[in-house]
């Protein structure tokens, strides 16, 4: 794995398997970061299910950052995305500029009283598809790791 | 006619309206909103809507799309209608299972199966 570039804002110097971007709330920019990560994953010949999982997780994480993290804030604020793809795992971090929240306080969307709510499923889907999900203390930075499922010695059980 | 670009292919089969998506992925929130508005028009055009939403050609979706489906389902029920979903790719179906929405929606493997399941009027 190559070390990060000296100037973190010099995208041209960054290897394609890793990147750091500040994304605006525009479909073109969100799709571009997803495409960058998925291109790297496909280059490492991850299975199709992995592409699906990571694409979904990025979409949900970035959407949540704008919709919830930046609620009430300037719509022009960017969300910071970092990713690092290796042959055996993918790390993605999504940080918004909001005050954060308590991820443990999100109601379970599968409970009967919540099942017909139109929203509230993003974090659950991220947790279902990623091998590990955690937040920073404030709750405005989401760190996810996806382990390649068919790697030799891959464990069947991800971290809880 | 307006320059609005439809995201749907809509076909009437007997008394049932079948809707298919033109986009292969239903991720973009703006797109989903427009899709929801279009389907709402279809629902409101009938006194007792019988709607089949086919996911043929859809290979990705987001939780926002699920939310819109729930809103659509409620609207159909409020008008005394019926809703079926069909042709859902296995990876997408997993998303319905994880969120337990496979218990809320009436899902069929194929459009033909779904069409047969509507009650005869």
Description:
The complex is a heterodimer of chains A (160) and B (121). Chain A has 160 residues and is an alpha+beta fold. Helices cover 29% and strands 19% of the residues of chain A. Chain A has a single domain, classed as Heat Shock Protein 90. A five-stranded antiparallel beta sheet of chain A has the order 1-2-3-5-4, with helices on one face. In chain A, helix 1 runs antiparallel to helix 2 and helix 2 runs antiparallel to helix 3. Chain A is globular. Chain A starts with 17 loop residues before the first strand and ends in a 13-residue tail after the last strand. Chain B has a single domain, classed as STAS domain (Transcription Regulator spoIIAA, 2-Layer Sandwich). A five-stranded mixed beta sheet of chain B has the order 1-2-4-6-7. In chain B, strands 3-5 form a two-stranded parallel sheet. In chain B, strand 1 and strand 2 form a beta hairpin. In chain B, helix 1 runs parallel beside helix 2. The longest helix of chain B is centred in the N-terminal third of the chain and has 16 residues. Chains A and B meet through helix 2 and helix 3 of A and helix 2 and helix 3 of B.
Q: What form of chain B results from the Cα inertia axes?
A: globular
Mean pLDDT of chain A, nearest integer? Answer: 88
Order of helices and strands of chain A: EHHEEHEE
Instruction: Tell me what portion of residues of chain A adopts beta-strand conformation.
Output: 15-25%
Looking at the overall shape, the CATH architecture of chain B is 2-Layer Sandwich
CATH superfamily of chain A: Histidine kinase-like ATPase, C-terminal domain
Distance between the termini of chain A: 27 Å
The largest pleated sheet of chain A is described as: 5 strands, antiparallel
